[in-house]
Design a protein that fits this description.
mainly beta; three-stranded antiparallel beta sheet; binds zinc ion
């Protein structure tokens, strides 16, 4: 029995009946990645500062926001693990 991994991130891929392929570590089809705001999400100003870990403020509109946010990175693409990266 061969194991399956996601081609993009190498996480283990598991097939859930009724759901399809998901990442084993998250249980989700889509993987997310953590990004950091470089601009204020409220007004778009670059005049922001991380005042405490993961927490930012904007000096222009005084918004408080989480400096990190998650975006959908990729949809899982299962490939057999034992194939070991020999791609065409
Ligand atoms: Zn993945
Ligand atoms: Zn702002």
């Amino acid at each position: 029995m061969s194991e399956w991994i996601c081609k993009w991130c190498g996480d283990e891929a598991v097939f859930i009946t009724g759901k399809g392929w998901v990442h084993k570590s998250t249980g989700k089809m889509y993987a997310t990645k953590t990004m950091r705001h470089e601009r204020c999400p409220e007004c778009g100003s670059k005049n922001i500062k991380e005042i405490k870990p993961k927490w930012g403020i904007c000096f222009d509109c005084h918004a408080n926001f989480h400096i990190e946010y998650e975006i959908d990175d990729h949809c899982i693409l299962p490939i057999p693990k034992d194939k070991g990266g020999d791609e065409q």
